[in-house]
Amino acid sequence: MASTMGVLSSLEKDNLLSSLDLPGLSADLSSSRSVLDEKVTASISQLGSFSLEAIASLENVASERSVVEARIAASTKMGRVAALKRDEMAQVAASLEREKEELEGQLAHLPTAVETLHMAKQAERAEVEQENANVVDEEHKNERKLNALEQAVACYSARLGLKFEHTDAEELVLVFTLVDETNPKREFRAKVKVHPTTGQYELTGCEPDFDDDAKRRMVNELNTTEDFGAFVRSVRRIFKATV
After folding, report:
1. What are the Chromosome segregation protein Spc25 C-terminal domain coordinates in residue numbering (predicted)?
2. Whether 162 contacts 174, CB under 8 Å
């Protein structure tokens, strides 16, 4: 184009320029530019609207996702709670089953236990009855011994100058007189007691005192023979030997 204009004459140039519709071209250019601007503006507007809708959609999606995630978390938690409750219920059921088995075992052995208890009660009753019989027998024995003491004292009191007294310690005191010829009223005392557990005679004191071996020998003989009269005569002989 530039080379063509270079070879054209001034007249030709003027004719060419005058033939061009410059205002029309300018108007067409302006019109085209306006149309282009409107399209660009519309496109930008559409893009903006699309962007807002896209953002709103993304926000809705995010919100829905949060709700779904919350539901999933709640479901998971409930599932764990349910699993824990199932485990607890299983443990309780197992404990109750064990208790049931123990009770059934106890019930199975109950007749034997009842019979054993019944036999033990019978044996205990028999033992108590035997002990009561022993106590009664021992009481009778002690009563017989006391009667023997009193009878012997009564028998010898007149001839041997013997009388008896009782102490708070349940002792029978033999009081001898007519022992010392120089002083017939002088008293010689011997304390005798029946042991409450063994039922054996005991010589708990003498006034005046005399040999321990002689006392042991007389008491052993009395417990062996239960001849209280012979015991009284032996004590009187020993007292007389001390004068």
Report:
1. 168-240
2. yes
pLDDT digits (tens, 9 = 90+) for 22-55: 666 667 777 777 777 777 677 667 666 656 666 6
Range of the domain at 155: 141-242
Question: Do 207 and 188 contact (CB within 8 A), yes or no?
Answer: yes
CATH for 167: 3.30.457.50
Grouping H, G, I as helix, E, B as strand and the rest as coil, residue 206 is: strand
**219 occurs within a structural domain:** yes
SS3 content of the chain, % helix, strand, coil (to 5): 75, 10, 15
For the chain, how many residues are written? 243
Which residues touch 172 (CB under 8 Å, ≥6 apart)? 146, 149, 153, 164, 165, 166, 191, 192, 193
Query: Is residue 203 in a domain?
Result: yes
| Separation of alpha carbons 241 and 237, rounded Å | 6
pTM over 0.85: no
Q: How far apart are CA 70 and CA 49, in angstroms?
A: 31
For residue 131, being part of any structural domain is answered with no
Would you say 156 and 220 are in contact if contact means Cβ atoms under 8 Å apart? no
Place of tokens 């306006």: 34
Number of domains in the chain: 1
Tokens of 180: 């010392």
